[in-house]
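2024-03-11 09:14:02 INFO receiving multi-entity request
2024-03-11 09:14:02 INFO entity count = four
2024-03-11 09:14:03 INFO echoing inputs for audit
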Amino acid sequence: MDFGFDAQTEDYRKRLLAFMDEHVYPAEAGYHSGDGWGPPPILETLKAAAKSAGLWNLFLPGEHGAGLTNLQYAPLAEITGRSPAIAPAALNCAAPDTGNMEVLAEFGTDEQKRQWLTPLLDGTIRSAFAMTEPQVASSDATNIGTRIERDGDEYVINGRKFYITGAMNPNCRIFIVMGKTDPDAARHVQQSQVLVPRDTPGLTVERGMTVFGYTDGDHGGHAELIFDNVRVPVSNLIGEEGGGFAISQARLGPGRIHHCMRLIGMAERALELMCTRALSRTPFGKPLAEQGVVQDWIAESRVRIEQARLLVLKAAWLMDTVGNKGAHTEIQAIKIIVPSTVEWIVDKAIQAHGAAGTSQDTPLAALWVAARTLRLADGPDEVHKRSLARRELNRYRSTT
Amino acid sequence: MDFGFDAQTEDYRKRLLAFMDEHVYPAEAGYHSGDGWGPPPILETLKAAAKSAGLWNLFLPGEHGAGLTNLQYAPLAEITGRSPAIAPAALNCAAPDTGNMEVLAEFGTDEQKRQWLTPLLDGTIRSAFAMTEPQVASSDATNIGTRIERDGDEYVINGRKFYITGAMNPNCRIFIVMGKTDPDAARHVQQSQVLVPRDTPGLTVERGMTVFGYTDGDHGGHAELIFDNVRVPVSNLIGEEGGGFAISQARLGPGRIHHCMRLIGMAERALELMCTRALSRTPFGKPLAEQGVVQDWIAESRVRIEQARLLVLKAAWLMDTVGNKGAHTEIQAIKIIVPSTVEWIVDKAIQAHGAAGTSQDTPLAALWVAARTLRLADGPDEVHKRSLARRELNRYRSTT
Amino acid sequence: MDFGFDAQTEDYRKRLLAFMDEHVYPAEAGYHSGDGWGPPPILETLKAAAKSAGLWNLFLPGEHGAGLTNLQYAPLAEITGRSPAIAPAALNCAAPDTGNMEVLAEFGTDEQKRQWLTPLLDGTIRSAFAMTEPQVASSDATNIGTRIERDGDEYVINGRKFYITGAMNPNCRIFIVMGKTDPDAARHVQQSQVLVPRDTPGLTVERGMTVFGYTDGDHGGHAELIFDNVRVPVSNLIGEEGGGFAISQARLGPGRIHHCMRLIGMAERALELMCTRALSRTPFGKPLAEQGVVQDWIAESRVRIEQARLLVLKAAWLMDTVGNKGAHTEIQAIKIIVPSTVEWIVDKAIQAHGAAGTSQDTPLAALWVAARTLRLADGPDEVHKRSLARRELNRYRSTT
Amino acid sequence: MDFGFDAQTEDYRKRLLAFMDEHVYPAEAGYHSGDGWGPPPILETLKAAAKSAGLWNLFLPGEHGAGLTNLQYAPLAEITGRSPAIAPAALNCAAPDTGNMEVLAEFGTDEQKRQWLTPLLDGTIRSAFAMTEPQVASSDATNIGTRIERDGDEYVINGRKFYITGAMNPNCRIFIVMGKTDPDAARHVQQSQVLVPRDTPGLTVERGMTVFGYTDGDHGGHAELIFDNVRVPVSNLIGEEGGGFAISQARLGPGRIHHCMRLIGMAERALELMCTRALSRTPFGKPLAEQGVVQDWIAESRVRIEQARLLVLKAAWLMDTVGNKGAHTEIQAIKIIVPSTVEWIVDKAIQAHGAAGTSQDTPLAALWVAARTLRLADGPDEVHKRSLARRELNRYRSTT
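2024-03-11 09:21:47 INFO inference complete, emitting structure
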């Protein structure tokens, strides 16, 4: 057992921390999409800088990416989480492109890779993943209503999706769409995933959905999509028919590590802001930093961050050593605990800032929303708790 | 001891509930300020309907208003809280105008009443209250940096204010401004309040502040204001020099009752939405309404609402029977407990709605933000807890 | 709506507070049962004093008792809760005798009243209520395994009960036993209640059960009982066959008011101890009373007590005005919220006392155990939450 | 970074798990001290078995003990925590002897080692550590009132101590006593530690203190001690005069690892009991194991245990690699988070057991008390939070 980072990780951390100081934090103040949907122009400058600094596609194992393990990439994802609207995009490590690239790298045909993976790896286009639907509890994949029906050499897609992150960005050129090819098949082989280019007739990007008032315009918003007899060639199928659920499971593991480590970074940022605020404000003649309740928040935040980070790192280590399946409990555990933990910490940082903490003058309100929505994304925490509990109970079923 | 409403209150409740059904809820879907700052045109229609229904200025005791006691108005404020962006404004019972009208009715000169109270009571103009400042912990009134200096027959005002609710609305014509007339006086007589019309030279409405991404444009946003040698006649002083702190304390009591009862209404709305959602969604083959965790949320919500409402009603009763001072502990208690309680309930309602709960498709995200910011408004909860604890401890000081 | 006590209640409160000061608190230090099971001799002195002070059987409405309403008795029960091991017993207002006396007064035959109610009202004997069983989830009355079978003019009882409070006390002369007379009947008419004198052959008081290490010897412990072909005459039936569940429901309402108000009194006692301790201890050069975290505990405790008390009083008022059934939600609500609230408060008082708070040198550890066990008594909180949630949901069932 | 145990640790774990199954769990049912103070006779059998199994003094690094690192011993301490009243004592790894042996091994003279360390290592005597005092906040060492005054070749000790764990056991032969040799010296060099044999004249073991009703008689209780002109030779000084605080700090690090890992074991035991209970009880026609709220408890428990264990293991690793000082934050962090976490888990296990969970029929109530009291032992959590917060804030002091 050893809790130290290896040399390669330390080297990347050092370079990434320098990149944050030199490029990312200075870009924060003016980073707004304006009235449009998509990042401000400075992102291209940042991407170029990241590429030349060797900090590009760090998330992707294997030949197509930086070749890091999950355990090596995790602490880097944490650092990008300190500025979550900018750093992941600057390093071409932003969701949902990361998951889409992983899926294409693992399950894509050569042609699919050439057409979509290559520009995604180059950072010239963006992508989206269309799974969630407005009318059903999407945490249960068998609820999916979107149909993908074969008609000769084509698939015909009909349905409605919402909260499709990034889809409002006009540069989001390709959608991976989850739908049912065979509603009568067994529970987990009803679904398939197909590639749908943005300009396919019948596909309408209807509107952006807000999250607690934010449009998230600078990373392409969250769109409601309508698929009305959308036709794509059968070669746009990813993997095989009925493989949609399995593919979406495969992307979950790394995605949760990424999300959770970025959340840890957000928590560190919030704690840093809470501390500096507490040292600088003096209501009623005493610095906030000497108020017992504020100290309690700071101590609790530090302790909870340390606990949560270790659990995410262990989940990453398990994924690297025993695979997604062996890491199942830990992957669910981090999904359950990290968003709520970080939400709690950011809430306290906001409280220490007074009204300013809720405004555009600090990153805190946006960090809070990011943490809060991750209690829902990929299924609400409650679904994961129930599942984890059942596995725990199964250990004792034979003995009673 | 009697927990029933009196006949007059029951009559008002009945009529107000009907008004909500007939006028307010139907207006919710399209209620947006568009790109401007201020309410949509339909508000004028609603105001006319409220006037003709005898549901106007209900908040105001005495000759100028409906003449209700705090205990009688409280359950009506709760009902308006079910649609907090519309109902209070429709009934001319919205903050900060309510507090400003109370102050003018109690402390204003005849001329001040003629010029500002009358149009406010008529609902033809709006107003704002400029106290909070960006550079200091505003929960401590002695921190106020804005200066109000006498120069002959005028006051000269210099300073910066922020989070001034309603001030972005062009129809907000008058500001009550808190500043220091004598920084060297005793702690609570340094401050004065003066009336500053919107178009006074030197006053700049600089920008709107967001709250968790919301501009709150439809009720006039939250502005940052700059006062640069703003001059008003000395007759614009409210009450007397040095009386600013006392006046602001006087408005706090009723204001907290109003805020807290509206919060109770928001919680009831959220609980209703949680229940109807839980009955209509069936992930994994079982209605949410039969999930133990969701039932736990619903039961906890009901119990917490019942507790909180009783405490607010008791605080109102104490204000009516023994005055602001005798109700001090209860007024602080409701400020401490109600926002966090309602925040918790709305959070659970959001969780039961999945991603939709965070979007513009339900009122929940906006309700959450309203509850969250009231943990900060009028001073963070922590300041009030400390103060309440000291009074509790004082009961035992002589005995040890 | 009126939050003041009536004159009769105020008079009783004054006299009871004087009785506590004069008789109860001074008796606390030496109040131990020694090695036996039952109260120390001083209790008889206290009972005599209570009788002569007109503070006897206050819990019981109607001709047999003081004739107070639930709303009038509730604040008196609170006061007795400040010294829960002594005051209720001194006033002949201690569970489970109170519930047993209520049942006998309402459902008992004249002979049953003569034989058992009279000495209980006189305080010459004690009693117990035998419902909970070791092998089943007793919150579900249909689980009860004890059989009460008619055999000629007798009932034959077989079964095992545990956690039967008071039963170790040799002066506990009579048990009300719940069992099934007809296991095949409809769900809520399978059970009956019969009177079983302590010395009936076949009844064994097996052992005392501890609660968190306490034997509760001074109020008769919590016994495991074995009924092995215990025979009683059919005239020992209370009410009618199959009426056991209904009778036990009838006793629940007042019992919960009593328990919850006593808990409020315990919380007030704990808060008082927390405050006096905080004022007297000065670790690290600063009184505990000036530590922000301790102030936070004190403020939270005060606010939670005020909320909880109002809810219990409202439940009592509803019982008096619309009956047990109309007060159903509130009676469940207080069972759900009061024990956990008081547990929280006592925990903080213990923490402020350091190790001494867990020892016999303060009443706190015992108060904590009393609150904790009431999260389980009469069914775990979770059962009541589920039930309350279902009723809340039912309000919306028709609308979806 | 590597989250796997090394081979030696795995070997010890396997053997210790077998020992638990073969010897410890079977001894649980009858393990009571009866009316005396001290363990039942079976403990000697268990100790012999542990010795012959090579599971003896595992806690002690270096030549005198098993020579394991903190990181190696930690998972073994966890296992002993599954039966905390028996296993640690059986393996001669029980507090406070472990800390006393560490202190003697590190700071003791040869003669002190011969006389006291040898029999302690052999398990023929027990010991106690007398620091806490009844009249002061003992978390602040400068508050200590006990005097140790030199008089020729002797030290004269006067003072009162309480909550001295193990001291009621007649076989507790030696006390390490903390007192002030120089009250006028600098804050942390006022204190010294001296060895005081049990039978020294002037030393009175006054009484046992209960913890939530438990006497803890089977491990020697918690005594109040009076030192009235107790005289010991100056050669009984441990280390040097004024070194008492430093010595007590040295013992804290390993002690917290031991305590926290045993707590993790207790939590695992409670979770196991909660699961088996949930699978076996079926109130209202549905197993507890299928109740959403119970599943929530189980999932939360598993996640919290995983987090807490990793943090304790990291603290152990830091102690081994960078020393007590470098591990300061983590050692405080585990003291802050582990007891409250485990208390929460055990509380839920109790709730799942109903009344039985509070009784002597399960180990749960005693486990709860063990966790609860560790929120106070070695100073209340709040003191550690404040200290940790200050160090966190110090990181930002220069930057503001």
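2024-03-11 09:21:48 INFO post-check: The longest strand of chain B covers residues 154-165.
2024-03-11 09:21:48 INFO post-check: Strands of chain B lie at 126-130, 147-151, 154-165, 172-180, 191-197, 203-208, 222-233, 237-238.
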